[in-house]
Specification:
By secondary structure, the chain is an alpha/beta fold. It is built from twelve helices and nine strands. It has helices at about 35-55, 60-70, 80-90, 105-110, 135-140, 150-170, 170-185, 200-205, 205-215, 225-230, 250-255, 260-265; strands at about 10-15, 20-25, 95, 115-120, 190, 195, 220, 240-245, 285. The strands form three sheets. It has a five-stranded mixed sheet with strand order 6-5-8-7-9. Strands 1-2 form a two-stranded antiparallel sheet. Strands 3-4 form a two-stranded parallel ribbon. It starts with 8 loop residues before the first strand and ends in a 13-residue tail after the last strand. The protein binds fe (ii) ion. Fe (ii) ion (FE2) binds near residues 133, 137, 142 and 201.
């Protein structure tokens, strides 16, 4: 098992998410016995810190589902234990991977209700920031909402859409990636007593969990499928705009129609800079833009 102590990095590749490492696409068993004390401590530190910040900020479903899974700071969860809960609830399976996957492989997993989870956790000096997804981001951030039947179906629909977009070519994949980015990774949801976080990229980030809800700088705008498909985003700073859904059903409903005519419509329109507010937007909050970096939208 010693060979699994470091992820098997294959190469780096320029993608729409920047210059990222590409790993072997094989599914691997979670090498749970090889986690060191430092690994479990990293999990514990991040888990405690984020749970404290997220009560009152993350959506109800996210917080409750982490408990349903029995996730605690005591130790890195075992995928097998989580899979028992998940299989009964929504029929999804977590599969261990070495890291970020090529797009088509990733879509194929989602389309078949398999969620790839990076098995390794960041090092102590990366507690506050790591550019690529690790176990904490994937497990703490993404997995809880897979217990929600509607959200679970949405992720599968996204995977199927990804496989199709791959075949269509052009900007279809770019449009779809923006949808994933602004929902699954950086989405906000409106609850009775205010806006809450459901996006995994936010819940796994200490700074952005607070910034996305409380800073006056970013825009908070109502969900609109085509608008999102046109909107560029940030990979190296907090988002300039967050999109707010009313419910997971709204997300699922928006994803139900055939995307082909939607891609065609979107192709006729310009892309929208990450921080822009459009006349037709339903604006919850118009950002002040304070502290925004110039340029750098992808
Ligand atoms: Fe993610």
């Amino acid at each position: 098992m010693a060979a699994l102590n470091t992820p098997r990095r294959v190469e780096h590749q320029q993608t729409d998410k920047g210059y990222v490492p590409v790993y072997t696409t094989a599914i691997v068993d979670q090498p749970w016995d090889t986690y060191t004390r430092a690994d479990h401590e990293t999990w514990a530190t991040l888990f405690r810190r984020q749970r404290e910040i997220l009560v009152g900020r993350a959506c109800r479903e996210f917080l409750v589902n982490q408990q349903r899974f029995g996730m605690t700071p005591e130790a890195i969860p075992r995928f097998d234990d989580l899979n028992e809960v998940l299989a009964k609830a929504t029929g999804w399976t977590l599969v261990g991977v070495e890291g970020l996957l090529p797009e088509l492989t990733f879509f194929d997993h989602l389309a078949n209700r398999r969620f790839p989870v990076t098995w390794w956790i960041r090092k102590p000096d990366q507690i506050d920031y790591i550019a690529e997804p690790d176990l904490f981001h994937d497990l703490f951030g993404h997995v809880p909402l897979l217990l929600n039947p509607v959200f679970a179906d949405y992720i599968q629909a996204y995977g199927r859409g990804g496989v199709r977009a791959h075949g269509i070519g052009g900007d279809a994949l770019v449009n779809l990636t923006r949808l994933y980015w602004y929902t699954v990774e950086f989405g906000l949801i409106r609850e009775d007593d205010g806006l809450r976080i459901y996006g995994s990229g936010i819940v796994s980030s200490k700074g952005e969990s607070i910034y996305c809800l409380e800073s006056p700088a970013p825009n908070r705008i109502g969900f609109d499928l085509k608008r999102i498909m046109r909107t560029r985003y940030r990979i190296d700073t907090y988002q300039k705009t967050y999109f707010v859904i009313d419910s997971f059903e709204q997300l699922m409903d928006a994803t139900r129609p055939d995307f082909l005519p939607i891609y065609e419509d979107v192709a006729k329109l310009d892309s929208i800079p990450a921080g822009d507010v459009q006349p037709a937007d339903s604006v919850f909050h118009r950002g002040t833009g304070e502290g925004w970096a110039d340029g750098g939208d992808v």
